[in-house]
Amino acid sequence: MSVIEPAVLAPEAARRSPGRRALRRFLRHRMAVVSAVVLLLIVLAAVFARQIAGHDPNTTDLFATRAGPSGDHWLGTDATGRDVLARLLFAGRVSLGVGVAAALLAVVVGTVVGSLSGLLGGWVDQTAMRLADVFMSFPSLVVMVVIAGVIGPSVTAMVIAIGLFQWPQCGRLVRGVTLAVREQEYVQAARAAGAGPLWLIRRHIVPAALPPVSVVATLAVAQAIGLEATMSFLGLGVQPPAASWGNMLTDAQSLTVISTMPWLWLPPGLAVAATVLAVNFIGDGLRDAVDPRHT
Amino acid sequence: MTERSEGIEDAAPVVTPPDEGGLMTERSEGIEDAAPVVTPPDEGGLMTERSEGTSEPPLLSIENLVVDFATDDGVVHAVDGVSLAVRAGEIVAVVGESGSGKSVTAMSVLGLVRTPPGVIREGRILLRGEDLRAASGERLREIRGGEIAMIFQDPMTALNPVMTVGRQIAEALRLHDHDLGADDARSRVVTLLRKVGVPEAERRYGQYPHEFSGGMRQRAMIAMAIANDPDLLIADEPTTALDVTIQAQVLELLRTAQRDTGAATILITHDLGVVAELADRVIVMYAGRIVEEADVRSLFARPRHPYTAGLLSSVPRADLDGDLVSIPGSPPNMIDPPGGCAFHPRCPMARERCRTDRPEPYDLGDGRRSACHYADELDEGLALYAAGEEAG
């Protein structure tokens, strides 16, 4: 690098890349920052579940069923004497995993379909958007129950089902961005330089769509975690003995449990609530960060 | 030429119709070195060089190109039967008002006319004999930016604002050389930026377009265009969006870039100052058709179409008092163009025949073409238009 005279350096504010400026706006959003910390803790807890829990989530202790919190079992035990804290932490892996995987699937499918739809137009666009309309107009939970009933409940099926119902949001968004970007002269210039549709999508459309898509993606994660909990609660998602926050809540279906044994339902309930809330706040923060008009 | 006449006369490049001696140079007061200035091409040298190339097959030839655009009000023949040839290494200026079809012609060459609403109805576009209209999408992408590169009018909008300038040029390289590594691409871009006169190229590489001035941006665009050593450069009003003080520098750069690469250049412009400065040959378009073609000296010396004569006489002149001359009337409605010669409603020498009989460009000898029935009567062309008739 050649020698740079300090005098010709642009002022610091002008030197910041768009990404860095967005980060600064995000950090100004207090709830989002707190949420990011909370979410980070939840993720770390799930990742290091084995080290933190001190118990195996699936080992039953029939001499200590539905025992209240104690020094050994911090959050007590469930109906078959399994450690609730261990189950809660391991369930976090499943719930977060399903949420992220489903949202990722939705974002990838949505981005590919949306950008091709916007770029190619014509019948491709028509078909893709009508398909999106169909998915958006179905009551997703009902269809997911049917899918789980037909092909049997499994984590993979659930991820695919959730992703299937979430891509249209992202697809429409990316299509909108594509329609705006493709009219830009720099896209015309890229075409004149020999760029094909896939190149345009990778170099110009995806970067332009990334900020709004990241917002939608975060909200999709929250939604997916909620859906996973719902499905598992109904017994159509994650199957026992594997733990998920949803199927842990299944235990709380009786009034006696709700009134006398809060350690069975309060922790997973709070975990879902805290995670979804945190992710949603982060989504809000991201939206403000990437779109300065909404501050 | 209307753009030219709005308030920038004082700084505009000034063109005077040359007399026998060749192009004369005129400068407005007070902008000694800043404004592009019309300089005569080297005596004789350029001319003979060009005429030698006549025997070779042209680099690019367009034959009877017809491009239609569907609009809500009807079909517009944006380009209506254009034929032209560009030989290797020459600079051809395409001149005309907005909407005369010059940009559409250029975009057709690259196969970038958006369909719909545009559609190439007829004609052949041959690059060294290869029919580009029949070329595959893959071949076309190879040609774009490879054999034919384009420089856009507004360097602000032709660069992606959220991508560093260096990366954008690097991408132009990597589009045509898939094995090019990131480091090699970077060093080649820095070399290119230096070549087009961007100072501190290393640092500029990582900057965003908004950190570049207009002139620097256009330099970067030119670097991008010459990155793959094209055979043909298409410059679509490369100086229109620039400050007049920068125009001269960019024109000079275009000239050196053209000399270094040996690329033939199609220069689309409505600025006759730019034409006189750079072009070897001029093609004048009106209402989607070629109305006149000539080498630059003959055209300025003796236009053989009343529209060209009008364009030349409406260039502001600092050496003469009096009102600005303009061509009466306004450009034709392209949905329903006038019958016969499209220029007849504005033409001072229009006759009955011009209303009904559409003139085709015909050969006048010496590589000149004109689409005027009465081209031979145009010896006194410059006197056709009276000053002050419709000033401004």
UniProtKB/TrEMBL annotation, chain B:
> How is this protein annotated for GO cellular component?
plasma membrane
PANTHER family according to UniProt: DIPEPTIDE TRANSPORT ATP-BINDING PROTEIN DPPD, OLIGOPEPTIDE TRANSPORT ATP-BINDING PROTEIN APPD
The answer, when asked if Lipoprotein is one of the entry's keywords, is no
> Which top-rank group of organisms is this from?
Bacteria
Q: Where is the ABC transporter domain?
A: 60-312
Q: Say yes or no: keyword Nucleus present.
A: no
Q: Name one GO biological process term.
A: peptide transport
Which species is listed as the source? Actinoallomurus iriomotensis
| Family note | Belongs to the ABC transporter superfamily.
Membrane topology value:
Peripheral membrane protein
| Lineage of producing organism | Bacteria, Bacillati, Actinomycetota, Actinomycetes, Streptosporangiales
The subcellular localization recorded is: Cell membrane
* Entry's Gene Ontology molecular function annotations: ATP binding; ATP hydrolysis activity
The UniProt keywords, alphabetically, are:
ATP-binding, Cell membrane, Membrane, Nucleotide-binding, Transport
Entry protein name:
ABC transporter ATP-binding protein
What segment(s) does the record annotate as region Disordered? 1-56
